[in-house]
Amino acid sequence: MRQTAVLTARGSGNAAAKAFIDLLTSPAGVAVLRDYGFVVDER
Q1: Nearest to 5 by CA among 40, 37, 36
Q2: Where are the alpha helices (DSSP H) in the chain?
Q3: In this structure, how many other beta carbons lie within 10 angstroms of the beta carbon of residue 3?
Q4: Which of 6, 8, 11, 27 could disulfide-link to 17, CB 3.0 to 4.6 Å?
């Protein structure tokens, strides 16, 4: 199953939403995702 995280136009003004996306795409966030079995694209 492929899963994607996006920040919508409406959410772009939400600091918490931006911080969450930043966390998911950070080296630490990618490591956590991989620890739970996710395959993370190197984009």
Answers
A1: 40
A2: 15-25, 27-35
A3: 6
A4: 11
Q: What share of the chain is helix, strand, coil (3-state, %, to 5)?
A: 55, 0, 45
Reading the block at residue 17, the tokens are: 């939403």
- Return per-residue pLDDT of the chain as tens, 43 residues: 788 899 999 988 999 999 999 999 999 999 999 999 999 987 6
* 27 close to 21: Cβ distance less than 8 angstroms: no
Q: Please give the sequence-ordered ranges of beta strands (E in DSSP) within 1-43, or none if there are none.
A: none
- Of the candidates 18, 21, 37, the one whose C-alpha atom is nearest the C-alpha of residue 29 is 21
Taking the CA of residue 20 as centre, how many other CA atoms within 13 Å lie in the half-sphere pointing to its CB? 11
